[in-house]
Amino acid sequence: MRFMTLENIARACGGTFYGDDGALSREAAGVVIDSRQVQKDFLYIAMRGERADGHRFIPDVFAKGAAAVISEEIFDDPAGPYILVDSCPQALKDIAEFYRSTLTIPIVGIAGSVGKTSTKEMIAAVLAQKLCVLKTEGNFNNEIGLPLTLLRIRPEHEAAVVEMGISDFGEMHRLAKMARPDICVMTNIGQCHLENLIDRDGALRAKSEMFDYLRPDGVIVLNGNDDKLDTIEEKNGVRPVRYFVEDGTVLSPEHDCFVTADSIVNHGVKGMEAVLHFHGEDAEDCPVCEPVPGLHNIYNACAAACVGDALGLSHAEICAGITHAGTIEGRTNLIETGGIVIIDDCYNANPVSMRASLDVLAHTKGRRIAVLGDMGELGQDERALHRAVGAYAAGKGIDRIFCTGTLSEEIVNGAMPACAAEHFDDVDALLASLLSYIKKGDAILVKASHFMKYSVIVAALRKAADDRSL
Fold first, then answer.
1. Are 358 and 396 in contact (CB under 8 A)?
2. I need a labelling partner for 60 at 20 to 30 A (CA). Which of 22, 123, 198, 339 fits?
3. What is the pLDDT of residue 190?
């Protein structure tokens, strides 16, 4: 890693170096917090977790050839050089911020209440048509995950696409300080993390901290369909580039949009069609066929088109990238097995994403079954918001709803009597009923907040379908 000498690392995190001074010029080949990922010449940061203290593994990582470790403890007889710090989590952030300052590639930061991961995937798919792209893996979008993502950037990478997720004020400021994105993408302002952010206006203020470290020549990409984002006129002297999807929303007359989408055709689980219109000097109409389902992915395509254009891709390259985008596990991931279709969307949930997933389910064939669970961090209106999801599901013609979780009782209350819905005490009881109910031709949506651990339901459905060949 260029410039990542132990001397520079110690200076960046304000640590005290212990070891042979001759090692100060040694460069770290990588930075990890998981001792199992240590390779020769890696820097290991010993984090204290709920289940284990990373300091216990320091002898092991030196045995694997680690260049040095970051530690909060002093050692009498260390097996190699180490840097003593007050806080390993803060050191991780400081080191990532320093490393980011050495990079010249464009970094795209993605924030918003809903759709960050699917938008990241779409943008990365588009940019990959021309550039070698690094993107956030899994849920590495917080104050631990983001710096680890930045520290994975290598000389071969020509762009990086990173998620920036928050739940409270101040977090986005700290993330932006590390990432310093050249392009800031904001997907929407919804009803997420309202326990801390209070309301959508609070969410807008918190997420707008993303612009704190945007350079004057940076780019802001905003969803023109979102009423809260519509209030942003400029940040740090940068006027936003907007995109807009013809979905019945009224476009603000004060704003022009660089990319718009219309002529939308929904093919259910087989994907979407639309025509993207690029405006400005190089105005052009581009038909696209997305293999990923859901109207929300048209928004993602428009965001990706704005980013691709900003980074010099041709419109043909942009549309080719959209066509080659795919789904990932837990995020509207379609699994066709044993005669059923499973819509695996169990990574996370909020009212907006619940409705979007129910829309996808509503366009499937056969019986439409929704397996829904609690949505977390919705604040004082959480019960009403769950009831509204139930009512929405009933209005979309869902055939049957299975729920578990304290708040999900309200989903059942909202759905009944228009839709058959049942609440269960736990996942085991739900699965017993669900597995005896499903049959060949069914489409089953599985969605809840991550803490509900609904991935076990997806796994059980897959196994039952494979075993029975429904």
1. yes
2. 22
3. 81
The whole-angstrom separation of Cα 186 and Cα 321 is 20
pLDDT digits (tens, 9 = 90+) for 114-128: 888 889 999 999 999
**Confidence (pTM):** 0.82
Between the alpha carbon of residue 240 and those of residues 184, 301, 310, the distances in Å are 9, 17, 12
Look at residue 70 and tell me whether its pLDDT is greater than 60. yes
Q: Crossing angle for the helix pair 296-310 and 315-323, nearest 10 degrees? A: 140
Q: What is the pLDDT of residue 441?
A: 92
User: 190-223: per-residue pLDDT in tens?
Assistant: 877 777 888 889 999 999 999 999 988 999 999 9
Q: Which residue in this structure is represented by tokens 């410039």?
A: 3
- Taking the C-alpha atoms of residue 380 and residue 115, their distance in angstroms, rounded to an integer, is 23
SS3 per-residue string spanning the chain: CCCCEHHHHHHHHCCEEECCHHHHHCECCEEECCHHHCCCCEEEECCECCCCEHHHHHHHHHHCCCCEEEECCCCCCCCCCEEECCCHHHHHHHHHHHHHHCCCCCEEEEECCCCHHHHHHHHHHHHCCCCCEEECCCCCCCCCHHHHHHCCCCCCCCEEEEECCCCCCCHHHHHHHHHCCCEEEECCCCCCCHHHHCCHHHHHHHHHHHHHHCCCCCEEEEECCCCCHHHCCCECCECCEEEEECCCCCCCCCCCCCEEEEEEEECHHHCEEEEEEECCCCCEEEEEEECCCCCHHHHHHHHHHHHHHHCCCCHHHHHHHHHCCCCECCECEEEEECCEEEEECCCCCCHHHHHHHHHHHHCCCCCEEEEEECCCCCHHHHHHHHHHHHHHHHHCCCCEEEEECCCCHHHHHHHCCCCEEEEECCHHHHHHHHHHHCCCCCEEEEECCHHHCCHHHHHHHHHHHHHHCC
Q: Are 109 and 179 in contact (CB under 8 A)?
A: yes
* Residue 114: closest CA among 402, 334, 347: 347
- What is the three-state SS of 49-83? CCCCEHHHHHHHHHHCCCCEEEECCCCCCCCCCEE
292, 360 Cβ separation under 8 angstroms: no
Tokens read off for 455:
């991935």
